[in-house]
Amino acid sequence: MSRETALEKTQQGSFGTEGEQLEWSYYDTATIAAATLVHRLFTNPLGAAGKTKADTNLTTAAQMPQGHHLEVNAIKVMYESNAAKATAAVQNFYDLLTETTATFILGSVKDMGEWTLQELMGCASLFAMTPTAAGDNIPLVQPRFTGIYPLNVPIVIAALTPFECRIEHHVAPAAALADDKLKISLCGILTRLS
Description:
This protein is mainly beta.
């Protein structure tokens, strides 16, 4: 290999005329409130409605940015309480997971997928228990929260395509969960123009 060829080779790869591919996540956050039964994620971009980069990294409202193409291979769900909770809030949280659905809407298609939060978070059993006598230690099958839901068939979001993830509580969330944060992340391969 000539010196010039070797030098050229070391300078290639970061960017190209055909764009670049990255492992990427677009995410958005909803704040839980008993009076809010529907959250439309990815409709308010970074900087709108007080959203910071901790809340969302989407820079356009309800659509894939120009020059971006995302093949979503997994949906991640994260939940954070706003403060330490009392024991009863465990059941409130389980109820929220069971009574809440997520629907992915792409363009004019009504839905491209619909799941309960319980399914998306990977928790097959949800059983809260308070010991009835001191020393009670009855083992229970515990959920293994993964928070990652792999898609067998990827969802493809092309540039300028409108999309949203609609979170719907079919029973109002308990007041104990007010101001908790629910984050949805669309993970996959992003192709973008350099």
